[in-house]
Amino acid sequence: MMTPNPPCPRERADINADQRFESGNTRRRWIGIFLGGGLLASFASFIYPVLRYLIPPPVADLGGDEIVASKVAELKPNSAKIFRFGNRPGLLIMNSDGTYRALSATCTHLGCTVQYRSDLRQIWCACHNGIYDLNGRNVSGPPPRPLAVFDVHLRGDEIVVTRKREA
Amino acid sequence: MFATLRNWFDERFDWDDLIAPLRHKTVPTHHLSYWYFLGGITLFLFGIQVATGILLLLYYRPGANEAFESVQYIMTQVRFGWLIRSIHSWSANLMIFTAFAHMFSVLFLKAYRKPRELTWVSGMLLLFLVMGFGFSGYLLPWNTLAFFATKVGTEITGQVPIMGKPMMIFLRGGEEVTGATLTRFFGFHVAVLPGLATVLLLLHLLLVQRLGISVPPKVEVQWTANPSAKREMTFFPNFLLREMMAWYVALGVLGVLAAVFPWNLGVKADPFVPAPAGIKPEWYFLFMFQTLKLIPSKVWFIDGEVLGVLAFGLVGLLWLMLPFFESDQPSNMKRWITGLAVFVLAYVAGMSVYGHFAK
Amino acid sequence: MGYGQTKNSCLDCHAALPDRLGVTQEKFSQDIHAQKGLTCVSCHGGDPDSDDPDKAMSPKAGWKGKIERKQIPQLCGSCHSDPAYIRQFNPSLRTDQLGQYHTSVHGKRLAAGDAKVAVCTDCHGVHDLRAPSDPRSTVNPVNVANTCARCHADANYMKGYSIPTDQFAKYSLSVHHQALMVRGDLSAPTCPTCHGNHGAAPPGIDKVQNVCSNCHAFQDQMYEKSLHKAAFQAASLPGCVVCHGNHAISYPTDAKLGTGPDAVCMRCHTPGDKCDQARANILADLVQLDQAIKGADRLLGLAESSGMEVSEARLAQDQARDSLTKARVTIHSFRTDLVDQDIQAGLKIAAKNLKAGKEAMVERARRRAGLGVSLIAIGMVLVGLRLYIKKIES
Predict the structure, then answer these.
(1) Taking a C-beta distance cutoff of 8 angstroms, is the pair B232, B27 a contact?
(2) Total domains present in chain A
(3) Is C371 close to B238, i.e. CB distance below 8 A?
(4) What is the rounded CA–CA span in Å between residue C106 and residue C108?
(5) Which end of chain C is more exposed for a tag (fewer CB within 10 A), N or C?
(6) Which residue of B58, B64, B73 is in closest CB contact with A62?
(7) Region C274-393: CATH code
């Protein structure tokens, strides 16, 4: 009759094999978590910005050499408005005859922001009483140079100001 | 599921036969093995450049009136535009650095020797292309620094006798640096150079695959004497997994650089403003720039700058042909070349540092 | 040698003579009269064709010799007050200089017998007289103060006259001098701008405001409507000069409104009275806006240096600074409510910009948080790869 093998040696071997199998499983799980989870998370952190990037932003205007300074309805004849052009202010004037003029609003004397004087129909700098005519020419007071003049076009109900293009 | 996909590909591409050589590819392991990563990192960074470059192309507008504004738009209005652009700029610099490092490591490990001369030549040509990428790409944001750096750089090209002036006009798209230059550089940067680089890259990688990874001479001697000391690992998956680690580290570094030190916009270029004092090219051109500054204005009867430009041209050509100067037989030439390599590395590094701190 | 003149015996001799009688060809060729074709005889008379001094310098030939100081204005005026004559040379040149001169302190004293005062040649030079637009001219705006100072800053020379001699020294410290000499702003005032040139005289206590208002128009408008105008006029005080000085006009800082050594209000007003309180309010307002602007600037600078885009807010800061400048001009109305209006406008803008700066910093923090997340993911991958490599190689 076959007596059962002594349990100890075989069982111990079994236990060792099981333990090895168990620790192998745990290790595989950790690798799975780190590698799989990490890959997923890192790919997400790469793809997410790219996807957001691909969607065009709401504002399409580059604001460089051209800008919508105002809407037609905003200005009355013989009045003016300051608008931002690039990094400096600009002055948009509506003449009494309905035409528009746009110039740089930075006084060429010491950099103050000029304003339109509807009584004088000229451009005035409050800082030291400098006066420019509507073509930007410095006609009186300290300013040493004329104001830069911009082009103005109407596009629908928008008043578009552009810098004069170089060659 | 992977198994079914594999079968599908295998039936149509004869996939298993195609990748069989890859399975057998091995990478030698020794105390200098870490240098082997540099090529792969450079390739990875090039991939990053292509990806971020394509993304930037969706919003960038070439042309003197719009280039600066479009980059400003990317940096401020486009969601994560700052990230894509900063990664592109940082990765460009890192790639040039790793390309140089890769070249020097190949030089010192003497991996250019027979039969790998063509790998060296294609690699050197790729290095020149990479510097061309850097030079052309630098102008694209159209800010003051870029404008004047391009002006100075193309001016120096014009110094080459006979060929110089026509080359300069070709590069600039005219006598001066203008919007035409920008358009041209844009064409070089996104079409011409990538096309050339792709061809050369494929050649370079093919050669590496066919010829295997080279082993430094001393190690080779050891292993020939004692074959059992030879250590190798399979490329697929062991080396590749390690390469992936290196690539992920590079990604982390890029992320930190892009987020903590975003690339700045500068001021829009104005051709009528005089050049800012102390204008310098980007760091990877500094060693040449500084050398030219140090050469006296007249050497014998030759104009100093012309001499400098010609000298660099000559050195570049010799550097390209380097493997052909060294024969298989043991000779003093090997030691000369190692000595020269040390000198050149010290010179490039030293001149770059000097150029950075000089007024 | 005058152009078109072939012989000039005057220069032939006088070029070789020592200083007081010496005039070289080189020197005379710089003179604008010589360049227009006039010569020695035009003013001195005589015969330029004769080499014999007796004949050349004979009264019969019209020789006047050295012109007496008292006669000089008349001599110069004989051409320069003749519009028909001057029109032949420069039609837009004024011809009222002599008339103006007669109204000036110099002119009046000269008529009364004082030969020490300035005559034409003292300021314009003689024999190498240049047009005023020439930067080397003694009466060019950049040089004219030095010319006036030759007498007016010489204490010895001015002994006997009851006016101070420190004007030039004071002017050299002023903001106008700085603008003219350092910044090269030729529109900045120098001596003749406020005193007149040919009709030179102090403006007069009640006219000072008029002089300053030619450039500082806004301040003048405010001051005109203020309480100070009437008060100063009644006390015969010279308007602007009371607080700003006349020659040593320095850049006005908020310290003028304070209680320290630069304070001007407290020179007259009593501490604690209504005006002192108004002063304190105005000062507090100005300081508040100034600090708000500086605070926003600091934050925007910080955001910018960490790579955030804040150019819109930076531009708007200029508007806030303009409000502060306007408020400082409104001080001249001496009304706290008007100053406060400008200050509040400025504060609103500065607050908006500060908000933009704060938003930029929040965005910066968000970016770094995002970076942190991706770095964690990258770290996980690195650990995972390491473990995987170990596993397949064990």
Answers:
(1) yes
(2) 2
(3) no
(4) 6
(5) C
(6) B73
(7) 1.20.140
